[in-house]
Structure formats: C-alpha cells, structure tokens
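Justification of resources, computational component.

The compute hours requested in this renewal are based largely on the per-chain cost of generating structure records like the one below. Each record pairs the submitted sequence with a full structure-token output. That output is archived, and it is also reused by downstream analysis tasks.
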Amino acid sequence: MSHDTTRAPSWPGYREVHRVTTLLRRESVGGMLLVVAAIIAIIWANSPASDAYFALRDFRIGYEPWHLDLSLGTWAADGLLAVFFFMVGLELKREIVSGSLRRFGTAIVPVTAAFAGVAVPALIYVAIVHTQPSLLAGWAIPTATDIAFAVAVLALVGSHLPGPLRIFLLTLAVVDDLIAIAIIAIFYTSDISLLPLAVFAVLVVIYGVIAHRARAWFARHAWGAWVVLLPIGFAAWAFLHASGVHATIAGVALAFTIPVAASRRQPEHHGMDLAEQFEHRFRPLSSGIAVPIFAFFAAGVAVGGGDGIMRALTDPVTIGVVAGLVFGKPIGILLGVRVLTLVTKVRLDPALKWIDLAGVGLLAGIGFTVSLLIAELSFPGGSPHTDDAKIAIMAASLLASVFASAVLLVRNRRYKQLEQDEEVDADGDDIPDVYQRPLPDAR
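The structure output for this chain reads:
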C-alpha cells in the first residue's frame, strides 16, 4: 500500500509570521516598500503599458447610495491612508499625554512651524504667478507635506537621529495635513453635508466610549478590535467621506479616542497601554500593506514625454509649485520657529539643532497626495496646468528628498559617532571615555 508523501500547502507557521511582522514594524523596511511601490508606479504609468495602470487605478468598486462607488486609487488615498493616519494619531496622542508634547512649550514649536510652512510656500507661488490671475487658484498646491513619504525618507536616512526630531516631523506633518484639509474644505469644496458630518462625530464619540469602557477587555483579546471597533471605525470613515470632508482625518480622530496611560512608568494593562498595544498590533498592516498600496496608486503620474516636460518647464505653475515646496517649506519652517523663539520664552528641545530642523524643513517639501488632490481641484478639467502641476509636484518631491537626505545623512553619521563615543570604555572603569577626556586648553 503506497502512501502519498506530498504535503498539502499549509498556512505559514508562527515563526514565519512573527519574522515578517517584526520586519514590517521597522520604519526603514516600510519606507523601502513605499519607495519601491512608487517607483514601480512611475515606470508603469510612463511605459507602453500605461493604459493598463490607469485602468487599474480608475477601476471603480463600491456602493453608490453610501457615496462609496470609488476608484481603487480613491480607496487607497482616502481609505488605506486613513490606516496610516490612525497609526500617526496613536503615536501623537501618546506623546501629547505622556511624552514630550505634553508641555505647551514643546508642542507649540512644530505647530508654529506647520503654519509658517504653509503660509510661505503659498506666498511664493502667488508672487510668481500673480501676473496671470487665472493661475492663482493653485496657490494651495505647494502648501501640503506628504507625511507618509516624509516619514519613510526619515526612517531610511535617519536611524540615529534624535527621537524628538521624528516627533517634530510627525506633529508638523499632521498639523500641515489638517491645515491642507481645512483649505480644501473652505476654498475647494462647494458643498459640505452637515448631516453625515454630525453622524461621523457621534460615531467617533461611541467609538471612544467603547474603547475606554472596555479597554481591559481589548487589552486581553486581540481580536476584539477587529470585531467591535473596526466596524464602527469604518462607518465613521464612510460618513466623513460622504460629508465631503477629506476622509483620512477620520484616522486621526479615531486614534485620539484610544486611552493612553498618563505615565509611561505606570502602563494600564499587561506592561503597555491600549494605544501602545494597538500601535504594536496594527503597524505591520499600515507599513506593509496600506502605505505601499497607497504609494502605488498615488505615484503613477504620466509625465507626457519630452513635449510635456518642455511645456511644464515654462509654465509659471510649475515654477511656483517647485519653488514653494523646495524653498518655501524650509524657509517657512525655520522662519516660523526662529520668530517664535525670539518673541516668546519658548526654546527648542536641547536635542534639536537648527541644522536638524533645516533637514526636516527640506523633507517637508515632499508634497504628494494632498498636493496632487489640490492640483486636480485647482484648474478646470483637461487643463494643461493640472498636468504641469503634477509634474512639478513629482520633481519638487524628488529634489526635496535628495536635498533633505544629503543634510540628514551627514547629521545621522554625526549622531552615530556620538553614540559610539559614549559607549567606548577602554579602561574598563564603567565610565565612557568621552567623559574622561581632558578639557581643551583655554589659552
């Protein structure tokens, strides 16, 4: 009697799943996935098979009566990106409640930088296109920072940069996006439905009450969030989307309802609070699936060949967008922080240096998702200025990432060397040698 020795395919074992999820929790790995997805999209969108890419991006799926008959690209930008904003919201709330941002003097710095980083690029754009009033509608295109791309680049080039610098970028980018969403709602939205907006607010309250009342149960049962909170969160997102407000803000709103321990030395349950548990559980979903898919659909912009590039180079819209993102963002951020420290008693975190802020300011010039959305809303359908604005956003984002990386890589090497110096103890007396070097001669 013969026995079949072939084995049927089986689900990956715990070790394999654990290894993959551990990798995806590293921001550098998530950043590389995002960059790879964006490169694939750009190449495909400008290849002979570009029609297939745009057909896939524009394929519609959903239920129209709920305002959810959306293209795959919209599902990615409005839906999957909300998962990333949920993760950002969890981290920000923890910093506000028990971290560095709980102090007003610390939190006001990135908030001020965000407002200045929106105002200066807009003014630069207006100054460049003011002779053509029809182009003024695009003033908000260079105001937005793409938080997903910016954080990804920072993760790739800044493994040894101080933690407060990342929190500064996160806070700045989230406030920047909130401002951009408000700009869209006020200046680029003709109709906001108040009833769906009110239902969204009620659902957020219900979501938060359940998260607080049952936090011990959610901490013990990992599946509880998927069964109880996810349906409520999805419904809240859907109603916000139906209201006409950019739906990614739902991720931040829901995250801010998750309970956080007031002190990191006294976590609420099982060694970590609920926000920390959620962040640990859902980060692989965000960095391994949601953000790369979003990048794949957002980055696919058709350049239009040599003729399209030459036309774009002479368009004031292109010049205004590039100047606003590449130069206006860092100038506005540094200027805003500098004025704040001069006219108030607020001071920078000792761990932050002005050159580090300059690197982050350049990084904030990576404008992608919201900038592309505003470009679509700024000009009439079929206008060549829309395509030129998209080309400008791509070019400016590339330049900003290169300039920022050049600055931050140098700073990263410097911080890495400092860490190594602090660990050296050649004489074995348990005191790092860097603290035992003689002071330089004062003469």
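The CA atoms of residues 192 and 244 lie 5 Å apart. The two ends are 95 Å apart (CA to CA).
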